[in-house]
């Protein structure tokens, strides 16, 4: 497989993982929990998609826990509030997640255009040889 195809496909896969992470964070942005709770009582722990260079030089995306993954919010009437009136909320900024998702979408589309350009070059090469 051509390194161009490999890089484009790796970029598309990395973009897909970034969109998946943003979607997960957005979908769970309101999943609060009892501070220090576990299981059903725990808040959603936000995650990050970090792009790194893979062993073959192409992009890869690693999923890492966000630091901090949660924050305390004062909500004394919430059923999961602690005795002090706090709930643990995911550290998710929906606007930031939407921007990250749009950037990943644009990157995905750029990699598709790379594949189309490679295909056109291959067709042109075959036309020259015949």
TrEMBL record:
Similarity annotation: Belongs to the flagella basal body rod proteins family.
Name of the protein described by the UniProt record: Flagellar basal-body rod protein FlgC
Flagellar basal-body/hook protein C-terminal domain: residues covered: 84-127
The species this protein was found in: Sneathiella chinensis
Region (Disordered): 51-87
Subcellular location: Bacterial flagellum basal body
Gene: flgC
Entry's transmembrane regions: none
The organism's place on the tree of life at top rank: Bacteria
InterPro entries the record matches: Flg_bb/hook_C_dom
Coiled coil: none
Any matching Pfam family: Flg_bbr_C
Keywords, alphabetical: Bacterial flagellum, Cell projection, Cilium, Flagellum
